[in-house]
User: Fold this.
Amino acid sequence: MIEPAQFLNYLQSMGINFFTGVPDSLLKNMCACITDSVDEEHHIIAANEGGAVALASGYYLATGDIPLVYMQNSGIGNAVNPLLSLVDPEVYSIPMILVVGWRGEPGVHDEPQHKKQGAVTCELFDAMGIGWTLMPDSLDDFKNIFSSIYTHIRKNLQAHVLIVKKDT
Assistant:
């Protein structure tokens, strides 16, 4: 399991200093850490996932800095429109990191309402043309993959999703 404070410190060392999203039970420790550590100008809890993507887009356009959006996978539907009409490389090419809690992950016991969304989570990002990576469960492994992801999204001005499994 990755310690939230170490995760946040690493993201900030990479230049990610704006956070927005809708809290998720799988991401509760990360969300609490951000709330406790980041001032209100740089952390906005959004009313919905689409609003979070829009806030992150505005932040990038105003600063040129890559933001982070967090959500549960059940919120992907709320984020589709702004991801495709703002963030997509064929529109405004807005880079951002999305951290998505994977409820209903196939093979992992969860509540019934999460089953279908969990089964199609990765395919939804594939269909939107948004790259995704399963979040490793150690900080060292995360650092090893994230530096290349970050370089790629900054260079190509694209979003990238980190899909977070239970207990990561």
